[in-house]
Every structure is written in C-alpha cells, then in structure tokens.
Amino acid sequence: MKPKPHQNATLDERITGSLVGAAVGDALGGPVEGYSPEQILEHHGGRVHGIVGPWHGEAWRTARPLAPYHKGDGHVTDDTLMTHALIRVYARVRDHLDAYAIADHLVPDLMTETRWIPELETEALPLHRIFLAEKWLVTRIHYGHADPREAGTGNIVNCGAAMYMSPVGLVNAANPQAAYAEALDIAGAHQSSYGREAAGVLAAAVAAACTPGATPDSVVSTCLSLAKDGTRTAIERVCAEASRHTDFESALSPLREAVAPYDTVGPDYRAPSLGARRPSRLHAIEELPVALGMLLVAQGDYRHAVLGAVNYGRDCDSIATMAGALAGALGSPIPQDWAKTVAEASRLDLWEPAAALTAVTREIFTRDTSRRRTHEQAFASLGGPECSA
Question: Any idea which positions bind Mg(2+) (predicted)?
C-alpha cells in the first residue's frame, strides 16, 4: 500500500518538497541515463531502489569522452543546476519572468559565476557542464544577439527547457493557466515547438499539484486542458495506459510503447533517428508524458514515482526530476536519507533555494493581488462590475 500525499501540505512544504524532490530524482536517475530497463536490470542485478554509483565505476572520466561526468553516488546533474539558476533569477527580479529575464539574468549566471559542479568535482562555470541544447542559450542570446522571445528557434527540440520549469509552477502555485503562460514566455528563449510546449505544461502541472486537494488524476486533467497538439495526445495515451497499472515494473514497457509514436528519438536512445528533435505539431518529448504516467502508477507516492522513472531508463534523470517535482508538490514526503545523501554528495544546500523561492512567491502573490485590484477598480470605473472584496 503506497502512502498518500499530504493533502494539507502548506505552500512552504509543497515548494520545498517539489524542489528537493526534483533534485533527488535527478541524482537517482543520472547514473542509469541512456540505458534501457533491460540493460539496467542486467547491469545492477535487479531494479535500482536507491542511490547507485557510476555505470562505468572508476572509469567514469574516460568511458564516454563526450560526457566525462561523475553521474552517480548522489550527484545532481544539469537538470538541478538549471533549476537552481532559474531560482536565482527569480530571487533577483522578485516578480514574474519573461524571455528577457532569461537574457538579462540567466545567461550571465551560466557564463560568469563559478560554482561547485558535482559531476565535474570542481568549481567551474555552469556553462561547462550544461548540455549543447542549453549552451544554445548563451550562443544565441549572448553571442548571436537574438531576440530572447525567439532565441529558442533552431535549437534541437528536447526536454531542456521543461526540465527546469518547476519553479515557474511553484511561483504560480494553484494557478496552472498562469504558470503555463509564463513558462511558454520564458522557454521561448531556449526552445521551440513541442519542447517549448512541454515546458509550459510541466509548469502548469506543478502549479496544479500545489492546489489543495490535488491528486495525480487532477494534475493530468489540468495538463490535458492546456496541452496542445502532439504533447496533449502523448500525455493522453501514456496516462490512459498508466491507469491500468499500480506497480512500475509492469508499466515500464507499456508506457514506452504508448509514447513511442510521439517520440522522435527512436528505440535506441544513444543513436537518435534522422527525424529526431525537429519541430513538429505531431510529436512530443518523451520525458513529460512518462513522468505523468509514473505519477499515476504511483498514485502520487514520491518513492514509487521516482523509482519508476529511474528504472524506465532512457532520459531518466529528467523523467525522475519531473516526477519528483510533481510528487513533492502534491505533498508526498521525500525519503530523508536520499535527500541527505544527495545534498552531501553534491555539496549543495537543497533547502536554501526552496526557502528563497518561497519568499519570492509570497512577494509576487502580493504584487499580483495589488495589480488585480488596480485593474478591477479601473474596469469598474469604465462601467464594469464592482470590485471584489
């Protein structure tokens, strides 16, 4: 019997749960990213049930020259680095963000401020760790001087923006429509097509999960009410399949089969098809539908949702990041031993960004209330309805 999420969780608890939950999911998924469920099963002699070491052991620096990263042993990846960077932007601006905030604040953060990078085991610029699709932000905006609202056009279409959009949902807690709109604006600097759409839907899902009384089913319903084109269809098909399962083991292959027609990468994650990651109204990123599917399979339970995402393989660090963010926002507790190990191994305070974002979220809500009342008064003066109390 899976424990139920805490329906009475406060805003502070949901923000902390979502952000810490995302980071822990990221760290658990990192060492098995890129592999299939069958490969994971064979390599580990069973399913992954917690923090594990690098796939190639001590040879992690040289086994994959393209990605010489220490994935495993509790290290977070670029998903968390980008999430924390976006929180720092919110902490500077202290209001809603748009694509210009990404250009003015996020891009300089990535390329000018050295930080501890867990997978590199050294102080470095975040730019030196983030993947090519995220380096596009710096290339297009800083060096190419592109309009930030359109800078994502031409980038490979992937989950790169969606993977760090949970703060947008948290700032707009219980207002998924606003989260969707803000995330689409922000993500325009980074992604286009279904990659940008996924960023909006993920933010909306997190905002919906913060609503008192929210359930995995209500979160998915909100996503379906907002998502467009292939993203909506992929979520619908994957979640319909997920509803038939109560254990991630039985769901692994069926969820992959359900999302496969909408995923452009193809069956071999490390050898993408020629049509991979191109703009399309017919397709979707794989990560978001599967994360939502695992949330349903787990009935909102954090541990079960994240372990399902991890053992799914493929881009499982991002899938587990999203599943962890959603389960945490619903109020499902994060295993404290996992959180402690990840924080210590990554040399990161996982709770400080949550505290910072909570304070900013409250400030933004106060501003939103004031702006709304000003609008109501102006509209009433035009002959509209009287202002609300």
Answer: 77-79, 315, 317-318
Q: Which residues of 109-144 are buried (b: 16+ CB within 10 A; e: fewer)?
A: bbbeeebebbbeeeeebbbebbbebbbbbbebbbee
* Residue 319 pLDDT class (50, 70, 90 cuts): very high
> Is position 98 within any domain?
yes
Structural domain count, the chain: 1
262/17 Cα distance (integer angstroms): 30
Write a three-state SS string for 224-277. HHHCCHHHHHHHHHHHHHHCCCCCHHHHHHHHHHHHHHHCCCCCCCCCCCCCCC
Two structure tokens written together for 380: 């009433």
The span from the CA of 340 to the CA of 110, in Å, is 26
Amino acid letter for position 159? C
Q: What is the identity of the amino acid at 25?
A: G
Residues belonging to the binding site are: 77-79, 315, 317-318
Structure tokens at 365: 């809500």
**Torsion angle of C-alpha atoms 76, 165, 303, 13, degrees rounded to 10:** 100
Q: What is the DSSP-derived secondary structure letter of residue 343?
A: H
Residue 130 lies in a domain: yes
Comparing CA positions, the residue from 135, 144, 303, 298 lying closest to residue 215 is 298
> Residue 17 is part of a domain; what is its CATH number?
1.10.4080.10
Q: Name 16's bridge partners.
A: none
User: DSSP 3-state assignment of 124?
Assistant: strand
| Structural domain that includes position 89 | 12-371
Question: Per the domain annotation, does 156 fall within a domain?
Answer: yes
Condensed to tens digits (0 to 9), the pLDDT of residues 159-191 reads 999 999 999 999 999 999 999 999 999 999 999
Specify if 253 maps to a domain: yes
First to last CA, the chain: 45
Q: Cα(293)–Cα(90) distance, rounded to whole angstroms? A: 30
Report CA dihedral (259, 265, 268, 272) to the nearest 10 degrees. Answer: 170
| pLDDT at residue 12, rounded to an integer | 98
pLDDT tens for each residue of 244-285: 999 999 999 999 999 999 999 999 999 998 999 999 999 999
The string of pLDDT tens digits covering residues 212-239 is: 999 999 999 999 999 999 999 999 999 9
